[in-house]
Structures are given as structure tokens and as C-alpha cells.
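Supplementary material to the annual report.
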Amino acid sequence: MFVKIALTMIYVAITLYLGYRGWKETTVAKDYLIAGRSMGGFVMALSYGATFISTSAIIGFGGAAALFGFSLLWLTFLNIFVGIFLAFVFFGSRVRRMGLALDAHTFPELLGRRYQSRFLQGFSGLVIFFFLPIYAGAVLIALARLVEVYLGINYHVALLGCSFLVAAYVLTGGIKAVMYTDAFQGCVMFVVMAVFLVSTYYMCGGFIEAHQTLTDMVQYYPETLKKGGMIGWTQGAAFGTPLWLTIYTTIVLGVGIGVLAQPQLAVRFMTIKSEAQLNRGVIYGGIFILCMTGVAFVVGALTNVVFFKEYGFVEKVVDGVTKKIPQISVVVAGGNIDKIIPMYIEKMFPDWFSTLFLLAMFAAAMSTLSAQYHAGGTSFGRDVYEKFLRGKGDTLLMTRIGVAATIVLTALWGLALPESIVALATAFFFGLCSSSFLPVFVLGIYWRGVTWAGACASMVSGFTISSLYALFIHQKEAVAIGLCKKMFGVDTLVSTYAPMSTIWKLQFVDQNVIALPISFLIAIVVSLMTTKIDERHLDRCWKNF
Amino acid sequence: MWLGMGSNEMAVVYVLCILAALWCTAYGVFFWKSEGKPINTADAVDWDREERELDKGR
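Predicted assembly:
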């Protein structure tokens, strides 16, 4: 226990010191909002990666990989290729350059100035301010549960304590404090995950041996998953089946593409000091993400091998018949996939590594949470109050009040939301951001022809379709929220159709697959039919390209 | 099947993840010092003032 508390104190002390450094270097609103556009590639890339990867990406999705196997690696590939390479090279550079040309300090402000629209800045600011705290609340729940288990502190005390700790440096030091602490937290995560991967392959008897053993274990693959369309951990899913749709649309497309329009990530591109630093960031970002989700998914799948090697079969009497139950991960965890990675750590690793792993999970949650507080706060203070409502007051003060409001809202969501909501809230927010912001964002930095009307129509329709789809059609959200059941007496509006029909399968298709193409199409069609933006303004937007 | 996987798809995606990270590394090294087009600092606009004027115009 002494080692545990000592390591935690060292971790908190370093975090608070870096927060203090951020505060010392923050004197004007530009420092607080976009770090004075002075960040280097290493800090920016690690901050981007650590913000991107929360506890649910490692524990939640790692547990999911214990069920779905290596097919989740498609998400890792998209995370690296789309979330890092395309995002940095094709979006990051243009966001930085247009941000400089328009003197934009937030993601909504970039959109607002690009389209000369207070409405777009206000609407996107409101969406971020009201919906980001739900996602942040889910991250806070995961963090508080970790502290409760790890240090034996009461859950509610842990929840409020974590809120205050992160609030202390976000409120005072702004994005500089957030990014400095993110970079440190990213380093902790990187080292721990690297050790995690090597240890697991060692326990499995080697690289090829590990995969081959998992391949040979296909006979023990859960029957319920086989009925849904899965074949095995190293065999993937049968094309077009409900589980294939779940994996490839919700998990891979929803999260893999959704990252591009995350306001708390996009703002990172405005903080970088030069193009060369951004290019260097691609190196650190690519390796970091491979070491995060790549390791979590590979280790998650291989926990089946380690558990089976350790425990083999357990005899159980089922309906009067003695059966040999293979001890694969989901069985060992009692059916709760969120417990697979924690149980694997607890049962297979020494105490010192358990402590380090939990610190890495603190780091993952805190780095994501701090960015959410900052993005929510700047949206309220700068975009909604100062720009949309034309409120008076000092920008720095108003933004800090916005951050405080976001922290309170997040804590309230943290207290109100059920614990099972973590992965769901993450996917919901990613989907909402994609369909609301992505078309307006992409077309805004690449197409001079997109108009104010096209952008407004796209953002509002994307937001509306995505929300309605999640409430009434997509099974995961619709069942959890329960509004469809209350209004129409059915889980989803398509679940009454003939099983395996195309319409019935829509309940397994992520809202992004439907809402995103529609909002893109609306932006293009409306733009072709409405008045163009003044060429003089477009020249100024494009002057750094 | 290769890499001990049960399907070619899983072996391909495993290798693709590593290649994607290597691709990012190669890109970063190749463009380590590249600054692209210089930033145009001329014709700076007072955007706050411009926004207020736009509001009045509407």
C-alpha cells in the first residue's frame, strides 16, 4: 500500500507541477485558448494522442477485443491512418493555416469566421457545451471507479476529488497546462502499454505461438457470438451478419472516422508553432496510437490464451449434466467484458505492474477529461457567450467561467449516469460530432464553393438525423435511453421487421453510416443552389494555402 | 494462413497497423524540416471589428 500511495503522490505532484508551469506561461486569452500557437510537435502529438485515448479505449475496447478478437485491429489501422496521418497532414496543416488567417481561437470560431456566421459558431458551441459533458461524465465515472478500487476511497468522494484535481490545472493554466500534463501522461501510458504487450507475448510462448494457440482455440469460441456471425478470434466475422455490422460500422467506422471532427482534437492543430513541428508530430502520433489501441486489442484477444493456459477447464453441473467449461476471458470475468483487462492484470501480473497500469489508466482518463473541460469551457465562454450572445467581459475570465460550468455539468452527469454508459456515451458523442461538424469542417477547408446556407443546413440536418437515429433506430443507444420504448412500445422502430431483412439490420448500423453521407450531400446540394460567399473573404481564408 | 492467424484478413490487418505507424514515421522523417508555403502575415484583419460590422449590416 505504501508503494501504491507513494507512486500516486509522485504522479499527482508531477501533474500539478506541469499544470503550474502552464499557468505561469499563460498571460493572455491566446495562451489560454490555443497555447499562443507555440507548441512543439512532441507535446502536441502526445497531447492529441492522450486526449484521443481514454480509459474506455484500453479497458472497454480491450475487453471487447477479448470477444471479437483481432478484427478490432481495423480500428487501430483507421486510428493511425485516418486519426493521425490524414488528420495531421490533410486537416492539421490547413486548420493551422486557416486558423492563422482568420485569427481563430476555437474550433467553432474557425467555422464561424470561415462562413461569416455567428449562428454556426453559436450552434456548434452549444452542441459542444451541452453534449461534451455527457462524454466527459462517462470518462469521469471510469476514473472515479478506478480510484475507488485502487485507493479504497468512497466512489462519490473519488468523483469529486478527481474533478477538483483536473479542474485545478485546467482552470488556471488553460490549454498549456492541459497539453503539458497530457504529454507527461502520454509518456506514462506508452511505457506501461509497451511492457504490457511484451509480457503478454512472453506468457503466450512467443509471437506466432500466441496467434496459433488462439486460432486453435476456435472450438471454444462462445456459441452466442457464432450465432451473431462471428467465426473466431483470429477468423473475424462473416460478411453482412449483425456482428459484422456492429464491428465494422459502430466500432470501426463510428470511432475511426468520428475522430476527425472532435473539437477538442481539432483545436490542437491551432496550437502548433510551425509546419515542420506538425510533420514531426506525425511520427510521435502514429507510434503512440499503435502502442495504445494496437496493444489493447492484441492483448485483449490474447487474454483468452493466457487464461486458458492457466486455468484450462472447470467442471460445472448444468441441468444435471456435468460439463467442462473452457476458461476463456469472458467466462473468467463472469460475462462482464469491462472486467477482463482488470482481472487479467490482477491475476497474471505482479503488484508493481498493477500499480503502474492503474496509474496509466489514471493518465488516460485525466488527459481526456482535461481536454474535454477545456473544449467545453471555451465553447461556452468564447463561442456562445462572447461571440454568439455578444456578451461583455474579459475573454480570459469568461472562458474560465465556461470551464467551471463545464466541470460542474460533467460532475452532475457523472453522478447521474449509469456506470454501463461509458462506451455508449463515447460512441454517441463521436457520432454526433461527425455528422454535425465533419462535412462543414472538411468542405470549409477544401472547397471555396460551400456557402453559408449549405453549411448551416448540413450542420443542423446532421445533428438532427444523428440524434433521431440514435434515439429511435440504432439499437445500442435506443434501448439504453428507452425513449422509443416509451413512445412506441418497441425497442427500435425497425426491430419489428422480418429478422435478417435489410431494414431490420439497420438497428446494428451506426448513425454515422446514414447521417454523415446525408449531411455531406445536403451541404453540397444547398451550396450549389445558394449565394456564394464574397470572393474577397474567401481570398483571405485561403491566403496561407 | 500466416502469422498464426485463422484468416488472411486478420494477418493483413495486423501487418497494416504496423505499416501505418511506419508510414507515419517515414513521412515525419522525410518532411522533418519542411515548412511548406510561408505564412502571409500581411493584410492582417481586425476580425472582431469586422464581425461587429457584419452584424450591423444584417
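The interface with chain A takes residues 1, 3-7, 9-10, 13-14, 16-18, 20-21, 23-25, 27-29, 31-37, 39-40, 43-45, 47, 51, 54-55 of chain B (CB under 8 Å).
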